[in-house]
Amino acid sequence: MKNRKFFNPSSGAEKRKGAVEMPFAWLFSLIVGAFILFLAIFAVVKIMQTENVAIDAATAKEVGVLLNPLETGFEAAKTTSLILPKDTRIYNRCTKDETFGRQTIRLSQKNFGKWSDTDVNVGFSNKYLFSNNYTEGKKFFIFSKPFEFPFKIADVIYITSANDKYCFENSPADVSDELSNLGQENIFIKDCPANSVRVCFSGNCEIRVNLESKYVEKRDSKMYFTDNTLMYAAIFSDSDTYECQLKRLMQRGEELTSLYIEKSNIIAAKGCSSNLGNDLSVLSSQFNVVDSSVNLNSAVVDAVQNIGVENGASNCKLW
Amino acid sequence: MPCKILELKTARQIANCGKRGDTPYALPPKTKKKMKNKKNGQLKIQQMSFMLIAITLFFALVGMFFLTLQVSKIKESAKTLEEKNALLLVTKLANSPEFSCGAAFGSERANCVDSDKVMALKNDIKKYGNFWGVTNIQIRKLYPISNNTKECNLNNYPDCNLIKIQDKEITSEYSNFISLCRKESSNGEIYDKCEVAQLTVSYGK
After folding, report:
1. Which of B131, B159, B166 has the highest number of chain A CBs within 10 A, making it the mutation to test binding with A?
2. Is residue A257 part of a domain?
3. Does residue A288 lie within any of the structural domains?
4. Across the interface, which of A43, A74, A100 has its CB nearest the CB of B110?
5. Nearest CA in chain B to A318
6. Which residues contact B148 (CB under 8 A, 6 or more apart)?
7. A297 within some domain
8. Which of A104, A192, B17, B27 has a CB 3.0–4.6 Å from the CB of A121, allowing a cystine?
9. Helix crossing, A228-236 with A173-182: angle to 10°?
């Protein structure tokens, strides 16, 4: 061992007092060991990140799949809750491309005090989720209601966190009845908690609903609605989500109108004429025009109501 | 004559040194030890490099095995979710606007499918693509019982018993019983006709 010195024996360094005698094999194994350890730690961190992304993506898909039973039959509205094991943020994204646009959900969960950074979006074409940009918590309330314009276009889904409490004080009878029947824990009709978001139908508060002009005012943005389904949608979601989902609803409405036109032709061949063909064509073009809630004007609403009345009075109802 | 160590160039010269009656050159003991140590050191470095290659290979194999496991786990979970989607969808699909009867046949009913609307949908299905996230949706009339399967199109409708709305390769399917209603006419009189049918939803590979 004495001869196998790291330093050249002929050099004067060896003779220096306090010089470290480090065999080459030791130094080599230390470097390689450190490299292997670094690689192992790097791999573990990467695997954990990938695992988190996979869990977030799977949970997002599961959330979407679990929304299927919320498709209402002929009931007015229904609610359910979703409890996740960790603190979770549900990001709500919406795109208007393609025939029906797309609803995407992205989940981020809290691990060791940090939100996981997931860029995997899980998409659905047949879902319409109304919520803020993201909803945060462990427990979420999911409430769905059919949107009819004039026929049923879809079941819209509102997602709120149990952490966000909404106070509907002095709301009209139909609204307070419906909300109290739902029995959703974070919606209060009376005795509102101090930290709740106030929704008022007159006066000034965070979310103001104007029933006469049919709009909801929130953070300096106005969202126009036609019925209670869209009113709740405007209350529970941010302006961008609302406008995008509204456009998607109109896109589906346009396609449904084509189906009803085709159906009217099929049943007309059997001698059952609804005489709604022309009106439906007009309705289809009006759906196309509504690319923002501002365009939900009286002309559109009147046309929709008239077709609804005509269909109701017909012997050969289309819907 | 002693061999001169500095003149020995080839391996043979080194091996023959001292064999032909030469007086072998005696290396100093310090140099001999040095050479032995050098040889030992080279051997150890060689051993270490083999070991390193073996360790790298081992970790690469373990990594590949782990990756394969992860990928199969993700695939399995995706399949389970698709199954779940199909299972939950089939119970509610009949109530979606493209299928449901609405109030077209009197009052609103659950699990009632409007076959006239479904035929219109079948015609327009390209637009719907992957709208419901399943690969196949079909409706089979169960009553009146028929031994022959007759697929519906606009020419033979309603004298048929199978409406294939989407038709792709499938792996598994889920079904639900529904009432399939349509407008019918007899002697100029229009009436509603409802039959028992089975709505099947399947997901692909």
Report:
1. B131
2. yes
3. yes
4. A74
5. B104
6. B161
7. yes
8. A104
9. 70
Q: What is the DSSP letter of A215?
A: E
Pairing of strands B189-203, B136-141: antiparallel
Within an 8 Å CB–CB cutoff, is residue A39 touching chain B? yes
Helix (H) or strand (E) holding A244: helix A239-268
Do A206 and A218 contact (CB within 8 A), yes or no? yes
- Asked if residues A262 and A284 have their Cβ atoms less than 8 Å apart, the reply is no
Boundaries of every domain in chain B: 5-70, 89-203
Mean pLDDT of B49-75: 88
Cite the beta strand spans of A225-277 per DSSP E: none
* CB < 8 Å to B89, chain A: 68
* A19 confidence band (pLDDT: 50, 70, 90): low
B interface mutation test: which of A6, A126, A144, A155 has the most B CBs within 10 A?
A: A126
The predicted-structure confidence for A137-192, as pLDDT tens digits, reads as follows: 999 999 899 999 999 999 999 999 999 999 998 899 999 999 999 899 999 998 89
Q: Quick check: A258 and B124 CB within 8 A?
A: yes
Whether A225 is covered by a domain: the verdict is no
Closest by CA to A93, choosing from A42, A127, A68, A67, is A127
Token couple for A54 = 């996979």
Kindly report the nearest CA distance between residue A295 and chain B, in angstroms: 24
Name the residue facing B131 among A25, A69, A125 (closest C-beta): A125
As a whole number, the mean pLDDT across chain B is: 83
Domain encompassing residue A295: 245-313
Residue A163's pLDDT is what? 94
Distance (Å, whole) CA B131 – CA B93: 12
Tell me the residue type at A247: K
Mutating which of A36, A74, A118 best tests the B interface, going by the most B Cβ atoms within 10 A? A74
- Cα distance from A99 to chain B (closest Cα, Å)? 7
**Lateral strand order in the sheet of B136-141:** B112-114, B172-186, B189-203, B136-141, B162-166
- Is B59 in Cβ contact with A154 (below 8 Å)? no
Q: Based on the structure, what is the number of domains in chain A?
A: 1
Mean pLDDT in residue range B49-72: 88
Closest to B139 measured CA to CA, from B102, B180, B188, B194: B180
